[in-house]
Amino acid sequence: MSRSSYLFTSESVSEGHPDKVCDRISDSIVDLYLGTDPLSRVAVETLTTTNLIVLAGEVRCSEPISQELIEQTAREAVRKIGYEQEGFHWKNARLENYLHEQSADIAQGVDSDEASQKDEGAGDQGIMFGYACRETDNLMPAPIHYSHRILEELAKGRHSGAMPELGPDSKSQVTLQYENGKPVGATSVVVSTQHNEDVPQDHLHNIVRGVVADVLPDGWMCPEDELYINPTGRFVIGGPDGDAGLTGRKIIVDTYGGAAPHGGGAFSGKDPTKVDRSAAYAARYVAKNIVAAGLADKCTLQVSYAIGVSKPLSLYVDLHNTGTVEESTLEKVLSRIVDLSPRGIRELLSLNRPIYERTSAYGHFGREPDNEGGFSWEKLDLAEAIKSELS
Asked: Catalytic one among 171, 195, 346, 358?
């Protein structure tokens, strides 16, 4: 039996966090390749440390992309975050590029073959999860939602010039009290943000406290002695100069803040033939539309794949005892109306586009679909079709 009253905590990290710098660089290169050739294959890993950026991985594209353009793209990603510091500067950091051609063994398992009528297979084996719940308007768990929003508002203030005291690197953590299974308020909030050398901590506290109070719903603010702002007392050295970064190390921040399972695969740096990414997006899309259709207050969906095989091996739905329909019935309906093959997912959500750099910070889920096709997995255009099949 699930508990009805409890505390639950989620964290977020900003676009300037070392790992998120790497996610952004990797996804900017994914966009570069997909913008050149929508059928490109890309798997890019990035490492950053003090004034050093290292790229590694494998790519395939119908048109050659110069080393100079790849380097320019990586540096531009860092520039847009705002790193112009002595220990990490978009222009001055050394960049090493070890990208190479995709393995022929992987390619033959993934590529389609019209002669043998073999459809495109999954880029790897694995399990992927999607989740949605009614805790927020965007059908996301409340702790991760508010953790993201706090850092987004700090970043907006930094980029606009309204908060020039702040640096790019920051982290947040929100603990919410749940009563009868629903969030009712914050019991503690932690925010650590990089700042300029000469900023008094009480001034910084006032800036950040105002953002937290504005982001949380009315009446949700935590007690003053449970608001922890830069609890170490100083955060001047940050970003890759303070801690090395790697692509794909913030997968819980990227998804549901620990409120739902994660299959283990990271998203950033991967083209949409990699089901680690595309199938996780599809699972969120389906779960969100199930909740939006009024069929449950909470939904977890799992799908699994084998490398080189087009059809999913399994589909599992859990409505957490909040559903108005049997899970087994819903699984059969979804198998009929949603094509969860790698090709089917990419076509359904139009994923072969340069739409990934924007996902690299503040969560891949719970975002608004945009006019360029970004966050297409957040659309609610499947809900009516699901309800119609069940009627």
From this structure: 171
